[in-house]
Amino acid sequence: MRTPFFAGNWKMFKTVAEATAFANAFVEDVRGVDGVDLVLAPPFTAIHALAGATQGSRVAVASQDVYWEKEGAFTGEVSAGMLVEAGARYAIVGHSERRRLFGDSDAWVNRKARAAMSAGLVPIVCIGETLEEREAGQTFDVLDRQITAGLDGFAGSEVAGLVLAYEPVWAIGTGRNATPEQAGEAHAHIRQRLRQWFGAEAAEGCRVLYGGSVKADNIAALRGQPDVDGALVGGASLDPKSFAAIVRNGR
Ligand code: PEP
Looking at domain 5-250, what is its CATH homologous superfamily? Predict the structure, then answer.
């Protein structure tokens, strides 16, 4: 049985003070909610404070990105070791906004995921097709490319321990979520590829999240699909009550 997993991606929202206030409310809201992994991904600046504010709770902290070098002349970048020291336990890599706006390629996603795992962070690797790719019937090809390139060199036992997030780009921040059937079909495909390429341990252990306009009123239907292990939530994770309702309805 895979433990359900819910992560909030705050993107470029929330100051240190706002992140701390969120944590204080959210930890209370999910008190007594057992058997789930809960993760919040604030901007880099709030990681340390949020790790402190959630210490001793079931809520862990993720970065929204990571750079693969350990240190050096890489202005603006943050290494995996630095994130661990700041209190992060997970690192999102390959989010579609990173791919689209900042040029993250599949090869970069691979290096970032590897660096994260080597430093002891659990990578949350995002994959997903654009609307154009879906309409051209290329969804599975895109997912296959992103999985093979993004996880190149990973052993089955490593894939078992990481998290994949299927996020159709056309559903992110648009209010237009994939139907449960669309999500279920993509997740079943991903699971089958994990089994084929990385073995049974990887297929059975790896949590595959759905992301894209998840809300408290659509999460239960999405989670009704057997291969949807939880959600990566953007907009609806910015309010503690709204994110806690997603966790309660979706666990
Ligand atoms: C995301 O940022 O990963 C995301 C899924 O955003 P939203 O929930 O707002 O669509």
Answer: Aldolase class I (3.20.20.70)
- Report domain extents, the chain: 5-250
Task: Give dist(CA 177, CA 229) in Å, integer.
Answer: 16
**DSSP label of 67:** B
User: How far is ligand 1, taken at its centre, from the CA of residue 97, in Å?
Assistant: 10
Residues identified as active-site: 95, 167
Are 163 and 5 in contact by the 8 Å Cβ rule? The answer is yes
CA-nearest residue, atom 2 of ligand 1: 234
Q: What is the pTM of this model?
A: 0.98
pLDDT averaged per 10 residues in sequence order, the chain, 251 residues: 96 98 97 95 98 96 98 98 98 98 98 98 98 96 98 98 97 90 98 98 98 96 97 98 98 94
Residues near ligand 1 (Cβ within 6 A)? 9, 167, 172-173, 211-214, 232-236
- Nearest-CA residue for atom 1 of ligand 1: 234
Instruction: Find the farthest-apart pair of alpha carbons in the chain and give their distance in angstroms, rounded.
Output: 48
